[in-house]
Design brief:
Elements lengths: L3 E5 L3 H13 L3 E5 L2 H11 L3 E4 L8 H9 L9 E5 L6 H8 L3 E4 L7 H18 L1
Parallel strand pairs: 1-2, 1-3, 3-4, 4-5
Helix pairs in contact: 2-3
């Protein structure tokens, strides 16, 4: 396995597609469908990456990202927003909330893995720079 990825996504079809692509590329995938469960699982699992939907029930992805960033054990964990929010300013809003990046929905299966793996590369570069 290349690593553990936590997917926080409430849409079953999107979750199925993301899980399929990640598992096909040798990642171990853990999934939850709401923000509170995502925060709890991230704290116990300490994944290598978190893919976070922004439109979640009860607690939106911005709030989830802020909560995840408060956990020092997850400080180095890439959090990537995977969202249909694609208006001007939405990318900046996700970064301000604590996400390291942004992947737009609908997911393009042909480039999705390259987008995900780019965030591992950026994390590794940040580690070397410290």
């Amino acid at each position: 396995m290349k690593g553990k990825i936590l997917v926080i996504e409430d849409n079953e079809q999107n979750l199925y597609l993301v899980r399929f692509i990640l598992e096909k590329n040798d990642y171990e995938v853990f999934a939850v469908m709401d923000g509170e469960s995502g925060i709890e699982m991230a704290a116990s699992l300490r994944p290598d990456m978190i893919l976070l939907d922004i439109q979640l029930p009860l607690m939106d992805g911005y709030t989830v990202a802020r909560n995840l960033r408060r956990n020092p054990d997850l400080a180095d964990t890439p959090i990537v927003a995977v969202t249909s929010y694609a208006m001007t300013g939405d990318r900046e809003k996700t970064i301000e909330a604590g996400c390291n990046g942004y992947i737009e929905k609908p997911i393009n299966p042909d480039i999705f893995m390259a987008q995900v793996e780019q965030h591992f590369t950026m994390r590794d570069q940040r580690r070397k720079g410290q």
